[in-house]
Amino acid sequence: MTYRGAVAGRWLFYDDPPMSQRLAGKVAIVTGSGTGIGAAIATRFASEGAAVVLADRDESSARAVCAEIVSAGGKAAACHVDIREADRVEALLEFTRQQFGPAHILINNAGVSAQKHFLDTPLETLRTMLDVNVAGTFLCAQAAARDMVKLGGGRIVNLASHSGLLGSSGRAAYAAAKGGIIAMTRVMAVDLAQYHITVNAIAPGPIDVPRSRQQHNKERRSAWHRAVPLGRYGEPPEVAAVALFLASDDASYVTGQTLAVDGGFSAAGLRVKQV
Ligand SMILES: NC(=O)c1ccc[n+]([C@@H]2O[C@H](COP(=O)([O-])OP(=O)(O)OC[C@H]3O[C@@H](n4cnc5c(N)ncnc54)[C@H](O)[C@@H]3O)[C@@H](O)[C@H]2O)c1
User: Fold this and answer.
1) Among 205, 261, 239, CA closest to 38
2) Which alpha helices (H) appear in the chain, and where do they start and end?
3) Which of 72, 84, 152, 205 is most buried by its number of CB atoms within 10 A?
4) This model's pTM is above 0.90
């Protein structure tokens, strides 16, 4: 798989495989799409024919990605949102209806992380993790699902993390939130199945986004290279490809699942060179 490369630190387009139009006629909201994984998902969805609303609390970065999509011939609009605020989330849904019609697809990608030893983690950090990652996902999913019920179906994909599946150092607050997203995904899938709405989660391993390039020092990066069987960080378009699958008709009988996109990290136990 090759990529056309990074533009302003973002991977924008695949050269190979050629684009299909798997999301033609669909409207998708991608939260947190001003950078990183969300920007890659929004860009890939637009290239697959979806009209995409890029929703981020950092409006200028959402606008920049939006402009790149539009100049490449895609359909997109940018909207400011703080997913913690119910009225802002309602405004996002209304913006989407006005721009393109109600959303068939919601990608709950916006999130925040924290890295601190358990004994040094303030309660406030836990509250922030739960507020953005769990309550934000809940609010966006509930608002979007109400429109999807009227549409007769839809797709919701929640970004969880390997930290919601496995223990790792310094992740108590973040893991609680991402584990919560995985549990909530299952229940949402059951409650929404009668409306033909599927709900799944993606649990990425280490993905090479601008934030992780800044935050992960040399020691952390080489620890990841050793721990991931594929021996490298994932690229944002590799997560976008899985989001596309889960948002497409190809995943019509998949719901309530969490799919790890982690180079085999969550599958690995003891690994030694000489077996
Ligand atoms: N990058 C990784 O290695 C990795 C690994 C596992 C899980 N994830 C998850 O994948 C998702 C995307 O990760 P990323 O690394 O691209 O993130 P990132 O930090 O690079 O970008 C997150 C985006 O979300 C936006 N955002 C944050 N809080 C918001 C709020 N309250 N309202 C609206 N927008 C808000 C930010 O402005 C930013 O544009 C996150 O949920 C993250 O937890 C990432």
Assistant:
1) 239
2) 36-47, 59-71, 86-100, 123-129, 136-151, 172-192, 210-215, 218-227, 236-247
3) 205
4) yes
Q: Is 253 a catalytic residue?
A: no
Look at the chain and count its residues.
275
On whether residue 6 sits in a domain, the answer given is no
Name the residue type at position 226: R
Distance between CA 275 and CA 271 in Å, rounded? 8
1 in any annotated domain: no
Spatial contact of 263 and 228, defined as CB atoms under 8 Å apart: yes
For 5, 43, 44, the CA distances from 62, given in Å and listed in that order, are 19, 11, 15
> Distances in Å between the alpha carbon of 160 and those of 78, 249, 272?
23, 22, 29
Question: What pLDDT digit, counting tens, does each position of 18-77 carry?
Answer: 568 999 999 999 999 999 999 999 999 999 999 999 999 999 999 999 999 999 999 999
Number of structural domains (the chain) is 1
- 186 lies in which domain range? 15-264
Q: What are the pocket residues of ligand 1 if the criterion is a CB atom closer than 6 Å to any ligand atom? A: 31-32, 34-38, 56-58, 61, 81-84, 109-113, 132, 136, 159, 161, 204, 206-207, 209, 211-212
Q: Is residue 27 part of a domain?
A: yes
Q: What integer is the mean pLDDT of 162-187?
A: 97
Report which protein residue has its CA nearest ligand 1's atom 43. Answer: 111
Question: What's the DSSP call for residue 110?
Answer: -
Q: Is residue 269 assigned to a domain?
A: no
CATH number at residue 250: 3.40.50.720
